[in-house]
Amino acid sequence: MKHLLSALSIVAVAFAAWLVPSTGADAEERYGKQKVVYHINYTGGKDDKKYRGAMRNIQNHINAVGADNMDIKVVIHGNGLGLLAAAKTNDLIKGQVVELKSLDVEMHVCANTLRGRKISYEKDLFDVYKEDIVPSGVAELSRLQQMGYTYIKP
Description:
This protein has helices at about 1-20, 25-30, 50-65, 80-85, 90-100, 110-115, 120-125, 135-145; strands spanning about 35-40, 70-75, 105-110, 135, 150. The chain has about 150 residues and is of the alpha/beta class.
């Protein structure tokens, strides 16, 4: 009986270890290197909840695969520019943007939207610089997909 309990304990520990999510080398083995473009062109909803959710999705993706294995671009156009406008006053979003940028996530902002809506990236948006501006958000999405980036719309 004692041997049976011991054997069952070993099986239980092995099963529990199998349930724990893989990290580190296991993640690299499972996912490899990834190139991803996230597309944001919608409003943030009540309390900017959709924007915070999108930023959380990106962070979770990095956590699963590892920052060293990721090349992430975020293309923002249309109503999506509200994310970077909200980050000027919403500390939660600001913190998420700062954290993602510290992990080399690039934010690409549509020049067409800036022009069409008379938005100043220097005054109206958080942490946007001239090199972050792309001529067209939708053209940038297409270009990145042609370069092998996986498209995700959170």
